[in-house]
Automatic annotation (TrEMBL):
GO terms for molecular function: abscisic acid binding; protein phosphatase inhibitor activity; signaling receptor activity. Belongs to the BetVI family. One of its GO terms (cellular component) is cytoplasm. Keywords: Alkaloid metabolism. One of its GO terms (biological process) is defense response. This is Bet v I/Major latex protein domain-containing protein. Residues 1-155 form the Bet v I/Major latex protein domain. It comes from Trifolium subterraneum (Subterranean clover).
Amino acid sequence: MAAGQLEHELELHVPASEAWDLFGGLGIGNLVVEEMPQSFQKVELIEGDGGVGTILKLTFTPGLPGPAGYSEKFTKIDHENRIKETEVVEGGYLELGFALFRVRFDVIEKGEDSSILKATIEYEVKEEYAANASLVSIQTLVNIAEVAKNYLNRNKAAKEVK
């Protein structure tokens, strides 16, 4: 079994609590469909309410490299430490020989009005499919982080105007 990990960090100019409100439940899934049609065709709630055990079906925009979509399950939501983990449970990377494909978001408090969003992909791929590890890219999570940052900044600016 071959394993790997990719990480990306981005500073958000909002309190960690505001960033967690977006990432801690279903909010980020709804946002990416609205703001990233070039990547996400749809995100469907299959089961759950945004807590541990929730299953989402992600369908990517046709023509992108990698899988056309997959279902992911929320496996960890730690509100105190602001950590959310999801794992692919059907389709996508599992069909390409991966035994594990996990995405984790950590929202780290940096200051009163600042936080860090750390996005991590962890994966394990069966030896006979080791070449497929090259399909794993952090770029979609980088794009999600940027969209989230812009959204949070817009909301912050709107609140300041009121």
